[in-house]
Amino acid sequence: MDFWSGYAWPTVLVVLQIIAIILPLIIAVAYLTYAERKVMAAMQLRQGPMVVGPFGLLQPIADGLKLLSKETIIPSGANRMLFILAPMITFFLSLVAWAVIPFDDGWVLADINVGVLYLFAISSLGVYGIIIAGWSSNSKYAFLGGLRSAAQMVSYEVSIGFVMISVLLCVGSLRISDIVHAQETIWFAIPLLPMFVIFFISALAETNRAPFDLPEGESEITGGFMVEYSSMTYALFFLGEYANMILMSGMTSILFLGGWLPPFGFAPFTWIPGVIWFVAKILFCLFVFIWVRATLPRFRYDQLMRLGWKVFLPFSLAWVVITAGVLTAFGWLPN
């Protein structure tokens, strides 16, 4: 066995697959900012970006060049290494989760048999980048924003965990491809509708999006955990947040909307490639993300915590018990 066929070529193939995932994802993140500004402008009877390029389509590139060309300012009292490392952690974690996301049947970088656990572990690690950013900035406003975000993300991860357990009980497998195949007859969004709603609202809180953008509340803690960041370090946080939005939309699609499958397996829709269906469902979820931001005011922090601990947690726990009871009573437990 020569070097190329044994070691180098498989490595090159994996690197090409990683680039094929990350490059479109970064472009999608850039143009998600454009889409958000245009959709919110339409909802508020404005025009949005219109100057840079036709219909403002070059605005994300102009914004990126502006952030790249600015000076990175590090506060004199900050921990320099952690200050720079924090946005890198946030952005890196938003990318590595895509290793187990299937875009179509067989279109996945790593089809591991514990894909759901991998996703849950990566989403749990995301809080570290924000805590490190808040602490290393040596600013009371940034520190308060980091504490808020840590409490918020931990609170809603519990609900997300119970929602995932409800889905896994119905599937009987931790492999993400199996979750999608289990929805060939009916999407889980219908029998598990309350869990679908809780998961999506928890995704809003997990990504610090409105109306749960308390860690960045301008009125009380100026800019939150990002208040001391500038230029490319700020941009990495920004890109990480939007990449997490796309990731949570992808998870919503896989867990509840059938992933790459057409609606209810209708024959007229089966000719459309699965990756098109998957992308369309992600775009729908992202539209709802933007719609919620344009519509709802920001919650108070006590309301945020009350919703997570006193409403979502007991309801999702009760739903897990009911789901397990129904599946056992009627003999529907998967093998």
Characterization of the model:
67% of the residues lie in helices and 0% in strands. The chain is globular. The protein has helices at 3-43, 59-69, 80-96, 115-136, 140-171, 176-181, 193-206, 218-221, 231-256, 274-295, 301-329. The chain has 11 helices and no strands. α3 packs antiparallel against α4 (115-136) and α5 (140-171) packs antiparallel against α7. It has 2 domains: 1-69; 71-330, no CATH class. The mean pLDDT is 86. With 335 residues, the chain is an all-alpha fold. GO terms for molecular function: NADH dehydrogenase activity; oxidoreductase activity, acting on NAD(P)H, quinone or similar compound as acceptor; quinone binding. Belongs to the complex I subunit 1 family. InterPro entries: NADH_UbQ_OxRdtase_su1/FPO (IPR001694), NADH_UbQ_OxRdtase_su1_CS (IPR018086). It is a multi-pass membrane protein. Its EC number is 7.1.1.-.
